[in-house]
Write a structure and sequence with these properties.
Order of helices and strands: HEHHEHHHEEHHEEEHHHEHEHEEH
Distance between the termini: 43 Å
Largest sheet: 3 strands, antiparallel
Mean pLDDT: 96
Structural class: mainly alpha
Number of helices: 14
Strand order of the largest sheet: 3-4-7
């Protein structure tokens, strides 16, 4: 007997029959359940954040440095809001990080490049097979997450916890063995070295990686200064300024977008490389959801978070995606994938699909922009670049804070954000699970099941919707 589309198995309304506000609450509960299930799952060591429980086609039964740092930042932020039961998870993540940092990897050891290693087995041993190395956004994102935790302990911790910060997290020693300072030393030295992007495909200089490194160096520099490591602090801040100065060069006035990568280098000699001999990986549009993710993960306090250039890039990415997936036919708001030319289908190379985390990131960008505009006491100056986004709601060139026109923009951004999340509602399975991708034609889940990053991205989008 087929269950009618009115109730789920547990008797609650079927998620597709819920009104949007009911679904938002349900989605957040399910996302937390899925995320937490992937931290120290059965068969993995404490502190391990698996990318997905999928072990075959695809095998994501690993812990990626980047994914783990992003997921644990979501956990840490919730801990700081009062979920004290998460403290054990944070402590175990740090313990696991210390072990992995001091492993000898194909890139080297703790002070010889090994911190740019990409992924580890679930027993904290490094993956040693052929891969896209290095990826230096991982250690930078880890600095962002753990610096926040360190400052919390310095503000509110016991004497023992403050000593923990000064020994385990940041020891202020020249030949450091500590977690945060080790990562800082690595990215301060390696940030200009070409590496691979967050999708592990393209070698070069990447907007996402550099913004993450900027934020990591800047936050790490502030922590170093607070702990009296003034010489290192000055160096980290100086290097962060150099990184920040590079970021505007990713803007393309001709295309009107933030380009995802420049200064391309030779890619992998691998069967997983869909474009051997083409260092740009076929990305002629230069559009990529990675730009949105960069501002969400590392744009705080910079000109990039919610900037008109990011919003213009979102508009161009949305237009491109409308034409890519059959699923977007007749839609005004598109399902969003990684980039228009993508060929990764979740298990191999053919035709790519939309991603849940990319679609959620579009919503989050809009929610965060709306919150910033609502709180702003400055007028909004709309240039020709900004008109491509703000022109949806106004014809004005200057909008005053708190005005009716500003309210129209804020409301419009929030409604547009909801429309992106409506896509997650429409194609997310009724059991609350989220795959990496959903089919370009049917909307059925594709690729890795229960992707931890998909859960984290949906949580942060919903938090942004509440103005958090």
């Amino acid at each position: 007997m087929t269950r009618p589309l009115t109730t789920a198995a547990n008797g609650v309304p079927h998620p597709k029959k819920m009104n949007f506000e009911e679904w938002v609450k349900w989605r957040e509960e399910k996302s937390w359940k899925g995320l937490l299930a992937n931290i120290h799952p059965e068969g993995a060591v404490p502190g391990c954040v698996v990318a997905s429980p999928s072990k075959v086609k695809p095998d994501y039964w690993y812990q990626w440095t980047r994914d783990s740092a992003l997921v644990m930042k979501t956990v840490l932020d919730s801990y700081l809001k009062g979920r004290k039961e998460f403290r054990k998870l944070i402590d175990e993540y740090i313990d696991a990080t210390r072990i992995m940092q001091h492993k000898e990897t194909p890139l080297g050891g703790f002070a010889t490049g090994g911190l740019g290693e990409v992924k580890f087995h679930v027993n904290n041993e490094p993956f040693t097979g052929e891969w896209s190395r290095p990826q230096n956004d991982g250690p930078a994102l880890r600095v962002i997450t753990l610096s926040r935790f360190a400052n919390h302990l310095l503000d509110q911790g016991t004497d023992a916890e403050k000593e923990y910060v000064k020994t385990v997290l940041y020891d202020s020693k020249l030949n450091t063995q500590s977690v945060i300072k080790g990562d800082l030393e690595h990215v301060a030295k390696e940030w200009a070295t070409p590496g691979y992007d967050l999708w592990e495909e393209v070698r070069g200089s990447h907007f996402y990686t550099l913004l993450a490194i900027y934020q990591g160096l800047y936050q790490g520099g502030l922590l170093a200064s607070r702990l009296g490591d003034t010489v290192a602090a000055a160096r980290y801040i100086d290097e962060s300024s150099k990184v920040l100065a590079v970021l505007p060069s990713f803007w393309s006035p001709t295309k009107g977008i933030i380009r995802v990568t420049k200064d391309h280098g030779k890619g992998r000699e691998s069967v997983e490389n869909a474009h051997v001999g083409d260092d740009t990986y076929g990305k002629v549009s230069e559009l990529d959801a990675a730009v949105l993710l960069a501002t969400l993960h590392a744009g705080e306090g910079t000109e990039w978070l919610g900037s008109e250039k990011v919003l213009a890039t979102l508009e161009e990415l949305s237009k491109a995606m409308l034409a890519v997936y059959p699923l977007n036919k007749s839609r005004k708001v598109p399902c969003i994938g990684r980039y228009p030319e993508d060929e990764y289908d979740g298990t191999g190379l053919s035709l790519a699909h939309p991603w849940f985390l990319c679609t959620a990131s579009a919503a989050e960008v809009l929610y965060r922009s709306a919150s910033a505009l609502e709180k702003s006491t400055e007028e909004l100056v709309i240039t020709d670049v900004g008109k491509r986004h703000f022109g949806r709601w106004t014809t004005e060139s200057i909008v005053q804070p708190g005005s009716e026109e500003m309210s129209k923009i804020v409301q419009g951004q929030r409604e547009l954000g909801d429309q992106f999340l409506e896509i997650v509602k429409e194609f997310g399975p009724s059991d609350g699970s989220l795959h990496e991708q959903f089919d370009r034609v049917t909307g059925v889940g594709r690729g890795a099941r229960d992707l931890t990053w998909s859960y984290a991205a949906s949580i942060t989008a919903l938090e942004a919707r509440r103005g958090e």
